[in-house]
User: Fold this.
Amino acid sequence: LVREGKQDEALAALAALEQKHPTVIPILLLKADALMQQNKLAEAQTVIEQIQRLPDAGALGGMLSAVIAMRAKDPQAAAAALKASSQSAPDSLQIRHLEGELAAVSGDFAVAIAALGDSVRVTSLRGRAGPLLCYCVAKLAEKQGPAAAEAALAPLVTSSPDEPFVLIAHSDVLAMQTKYSASLKQLDRLEEIEKKSALPAYLKSVV
Assistant:
């Protein structure tokens, strides 16, 4: 119901479930999601605080608090929530992804690139992290020049040389510096990896 945009119906159904199962985290998560979809951020935060009090919540409540804070355009609150979450789950790539999103909306593109470069390797996060990574590389190039963007991307080129979004971003900053042969080389590798995609051939045509 939430995904179909029927948040009121979803909330009614979840309220009945919550009465029977007040400490079941998936039910509370769905309730918080439905409230966020209606932009009822204060009510969603109350549900999240309820989750945080549960013994099995871990870093989940902090991550959701960060999402709400970002929607409310409160980067300081989002940063504080992510910092608390990372202390309880220091290796969480979901937290790294949120750190990347926060850095991107705050205009700290180099920090965003590093964080998104970690999370883009996770299949479930790639669809969001990858395009945002490319965006941040382009914005950093616009802000500080393509050489600075290439330097920020360099650790990812080393650690994830066959990651498609890294290849696309690297090709882009190389082309910005008129390093066309090197740029095309990245796209050749992308074409080898993404054999069924028409994207590499298109990107080659605009280098």
Summary: Residues 56 and 176 are 48 Å apart (CA to CA). The longest helix spans residues 123-144.
